Amino acid sequence: MNFRCIALALGFVGAGTALNAHADLIFNVAAVSDYRARGLSQSRFHPAAQAGVDYTNGGLYLGAFASTIKWIEDFPGGGADYELDVYGGYAGELGGGFGYDLGFLRYIFPDNGLEPDANTTEIYAGLTYGVGKLKLSRTVSKNFLAIPDSGKSYYVDLSASLDLGDGYTLVPHAGYQFISGPYSGDASYADASLTLSKDFNGLVPSVSLFATNAERSFYMPGGGAKGDSRNLGRAAVVVGLKYNF
Q1: Less Cβ around it within 10 Å: N or C end of the chain?
Q2: CATH architecture assigned to 3-244
């Protein structure tokens, strides 16, 4: 994993703290037994190391996230062994208990070597009410994650953050990933997850259950996986440990 790229992203975000003494900057490091994004394994069922930073100033936020991955190296010519995401946006109140969240997310896979390119940009809009959030993410780059002619893809998800008391949080989630273009029928899928975590003064262990109806014929590892043909969206329990500081 190239920590120099992570340091550059974190340094860019951190530079903003000098502009406003009331801004908040939180770093985190984590390890997970399997890196799942929208229900799909990005690390081919292997453990992953992760790091991130979040900067907030009122409703404005910026952030960066990095994780080790395997799926790109499993395809011919693929060369990225990590993912770096940068994001930002603005969240505010609408009144009556409702809120909004508008922003962008850029997935970066340095020197990924895939054709089409795996780098992807999304914009999103979220509506919150109480503990619940409904969010729509729309691809605005030419393709979504190296899937040809998929530039009109979108992801819609509904989640809640339930405070159970004594540091415990339960997060149910359901989503649908629509992939535009010629692979829509095979590539589009629904996912669901349930995550239980507990905060021990910044140290947060978690356990998650993931499930999808992703088609195995489309979402299986590439030829570099040495014969591994498991569905990357198969149901699984994932454990994690995160430290916020």
Answers
A1: C
A2: Beta Barrel (2.40)
